[in-house]
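Lecture 7 notes: from sequence to structure.
We start with the chain below.
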Amino acid sequence: LLRSATMWLLLHSLLLASSLRSASAFPKGCYPSEEEGLKTFRCSHARLTEVPRDIPNDTNKLYLDSNRIPFLPRDAFRDLPVLLELDLSHNSIAGVESGAFRGLADHLHTLDLSSNRLVSLGKEAFGHLKAKVNLSDNPWRCDCRLQELLRAVELVAGSSAGILCHSSAQEEHVGKAFLQVMADTDFCNAYKRTTDIAMLVTMFGWFAMVISYLVYYVRQNQEDARRHLEYLKSLPSKQRRSEESSTISTVV
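Predicted structure tokens for the same chain:
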């Protein structure tokens, strides 16, 4: 009986030590839990400045909200093969590298990027992600890039009203919901027209430079020829004939 009790205490101590060692591996303010039968890892209000590396790979729900994360690098969540929900709201995210969500395309259901510092983001940042995305409350620049992004992703229901134009090429768009503006304005066609006009102006500029050079070259040759004729006329008749003969011989 004593031996059994000793073994039980030893086993309990080992389990407790293992648990403490595992917990100490997590960043300060982060802890695992289970919510509604789903493995959850919470790092809310943990003062993080980057995505932590020691996230359990069986995590289903990951909360990184209300931190100071400024950037999402490539493969930031690659080792989370069963992640369903990812909350990155209320951070300082201003950039997302292409491939940041690589490995999440087949299983991620929701992605929250609301209340960050996103101004412009290409659709390639999400790859083949099928998750519903919340992009509200960011200082967006309304342009063709944002239009292409919103056509490539599925937004969380009700979040589109929070995607406002913080800046735009046209002042009247500022402060308006981007999807409302898109109903009347095709930013990509406007961009294409602007690009075409710029190309035409550039081509015309080069053409004008070539013509100007040709005109200058012809006039310069004419001026040189005129000066040479005047020089020949100014010579005495005998020397002029000699010069002309010499010129003819040289030509022949």
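Points to note: The chain has five helices and eleven strands. The chain has a mean pLDDT of 81.
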